[in-house]
Design a protein that fits this description.
Number of strands: 0
Oligomer: single chain
Shape: elongated
Number of helices: 29
Helix content: 55-70%
Order of helices and strands: HHHHHHHHHHHHHHHHHHHHHHHHHHHHH
Structural class: mainly alpha
Distance between the termini: 63 Å
């Protein structure tokens, strides 16, 4: 590994994970101080009330295991793995319990459940294949499991753990040609240990004559590729073997190049397995960048991108963004596959997440299944009745397909539902006002005024109200009360929102106000509030840019800009207000 410069962390990562898989989570849970009989009932009660409490589950497993009752062990593992199906170490422990009780068939069934739950997990396949190799008496059955593993994860960067076991199995049986065939297969795949395989392959073929390494038909094929021998004699088997080895080496160069291009991303993956703890920002950023790279790679290999997404969804299974991103990728070729993925997400790791359902509804609508789209939007609202985005998406959907009155009905119901939540209520008023604006401008304005009273912290509310009034005609008489209320010292509007209103108001004053003294006073106050013509968040950004490039100074914009807000109208900065 070290000779070829391969990442030492990659080399030991799988081994350490496998060697410590049983302890990977247990160290987090603490010890049980009470006796099993006195704690089991309370632990079971706690996991029923809090089924996602990983620590309690592992304590319950430890308690049940100490009793050595196989029926109870089966029950607790089945329940736990139904909740956390990606915990490969616990699947392995479950199968080991069956082995200890002499039931090889049940152990095999456990592994079958495991690979069904986590088809793209190298660790689970490695354990399954190794178990079959050590326990099964039929080599044909073992090979079938290895081949299924290769089909599932054989192209994974870290699939060496399965390839190694497969090669080891055939070597133990003295199957020289089969071993050779496996080397030939893996050497054209961009696995992380390809350079090691290349060296092992050369050592392997040096041990045997050519006719023991390959079939007679392969020797015949190589013979047809040989040029005429200058001395007029037939080529020897060693000459043919050399020609064949050169061909394999040439074929492996593409895989080596692909591996090299991806190694930096792979080295930054510190946790390729599932864990109930969140990933740090660096890990999430690396997955995003790796996916960006693979999607943009030319020529694109769709199967490789899909396998990377599936790998990503093992450690990142609790992050909705990766499920939705994957769905959009699949939708490029098949909306049905995108829907299947999101159904899988909503019934598994991110179940009861309304964002997944909103994305699913979009795909249903895109393929013309309006009934499923409507049902999915209603399901999202049942899970998150105060979620402004879900309400607006439902209203817009109905407006597209049933018309204005149906959308109004959705908003009217939402105003009642959200009456106790100022944030949701305010944003519903904003979006409702947009719907009715073409039909009743005054009612639209009244709604925005109410929204500003209900949700005064929102920059989006104030800016939308201000802009709508300003667009009614020149002059500041109508917009001045809005501006003064939003930027008052006791206003709860965030600094970036106030800054945007200041810039827009100064622009309007300069264009239409004849009282120069008033404009001068405003300019003076603006300079006090926003030194250098920037909000606090912009000053921080400017400082960072100057540190990066001392020769570049960004120009101050005098155009009213709506500062970034999220869907719920939150300001982009977290600083306190300044009037």
């Amino acid at each position: 590994r070290r000779v070829h410069g391969e990442s030492n962390s990659l080399s030991v990562m799988a081994d350490s994970a496998l060697g410590n898989s049983e302890d990977m989570f247990a160290s987090e849970t603490g010890a049980i101080s009470e006796t099993p009989n006195s704690t089991e009932e309370s632990l079971r009660s706690r996991v029923i009330d809090h089924p996602s409490d990983f620590s309690t589950w592992t304590q319950l497993i430890t308690t049940v295991e100490s009793q050595n009752d196989i029926e109870k062990i089966r029950a607790v593992y089945a329940d736990f793995l139904g909740q956390f199906p990606l915990c490969f170490g616990y699947w392995k422990k479950y199968a080991e319990h069956e082995h200890r009780h002499g039931d090889f068939q049940r152990a095999t069934e456990v592994f079958e459940q495991a690979v069904k739950a986590a088809w793209h997990d190298c660790h689970i396949w490695m354990h399954y294949a190794a178990n079959a190799a050590s326990k099964s008496e039929d080599p044909g059955d073992v090979r079938k499991i290895f081949e299924r593993a290769i089909e599932a994860i054989g192209y994974d960067f870290n699939s060496h753990m399965v390839w190694d076991k497969y090669i080891e199995f055939e070597k133990s049986r003295g199957e020289i040609m089969r071993v050779t065939s496996l080397f030939c297969r893996v050497l054209v795949i961009p696995v992380g240990h390809i350079l090691r395989y290349q060296e092992e392959f050369r050592k392997w073929i040096d041990q045997y004559p050519f006719d023991q390494l390959v079939s007679a038909s392969e020797i015949a094929r190589i013979t047809t590729l040989m040029p005429p021998n200058p001395n007029g004699k037939p080529w020897s088997d060693e000459d043919k073997k050399k020609k064949w080895a050169e061909e394999i080496d040439t074929q492996s160069q593409s895989a080596i190049q692909i591996t090299s291009e991806r190694r930096s991303y792979e080295q930054r993956i510190k946790r390729p397995y599932f864990h109930f703890k969140p990933l740090d920002d660096a890990q999430l950023t690396n997955w995003r960048q790796y996916l960006n790279f693979e999607e943009a790679y030319q020529p694109r290999d769709t199967s490789r991108v899909i396998k990377l997404y599936e790998r990503c969804l093992i450690p990142c299974c609790n992050y909705v963004e990766f499920w939705i991103r994957y769905a959009h990728f699949l939708a490029e070729e098949s909306i049905d596959k995108a829907c299947e993925l999101l159904i899988r997400a909503s019934s598994g790791p991110v179940k009861r997440n309304p964002d997944v359902l909103l994305a699913l509804a979009t795909f249903y609508e895109a393929k013309g299944d309006l009934e499923s789209a409507r049902e999915t939007l209603e399901q999202a609202l049942s899970w998150a009745p105060l979620m402004a985005e879900a309400i607006v998406r439902k209203a817009n959907f109905e407006n597209r397909h049933k018309g204005y009155d149906a959308a109004v009905a959705v908003f009217e119901q939402a105003l009642t539902t959200t009456s106790g939540d100022s944030r949701a209520h305010g944003m519903i008023l904003v979006h409702y006002s947009r719907l009715i604006r073409p039909k009743d401008r005054q009612l639209s304005l009244k709604m925005l005024e109410t929204a500003a009273e209900v949700f005064p912290e929102s920059a989006q509310v104030w800016i939308e109200w201000f802009t709508l009034v300003r667009n009614e005609g020149p002059g500041i008489s109508k917009i001045r009360p809005i501006f003064e209320k939003a930027t008052a010292p006791d206003s709860s509007l965030c600094e970036s929102g106030k800054y945007a209103l200041w810039v827009a108001y100064l622009d309007e004053v300069g264009r239409s106000e004849t009282d120069v003294t008033y404009e001068w006073r405003l300019q003076r106050q603006f300079i006090k509030n926003f030194p250098n013509g920037r909000s606090g968040s912009e000053r921080q950004d400017s400082k960072k840019r100057r540190q990066a490039d001392s020769n570049t100074e960004p120009q101050v914009s005098v155009t009213a800009q709506i500062q970034p807000t999220d869907f719920n109208g939150n300001c982009s900065d977290k600083e306190g207000s300044s009037s």
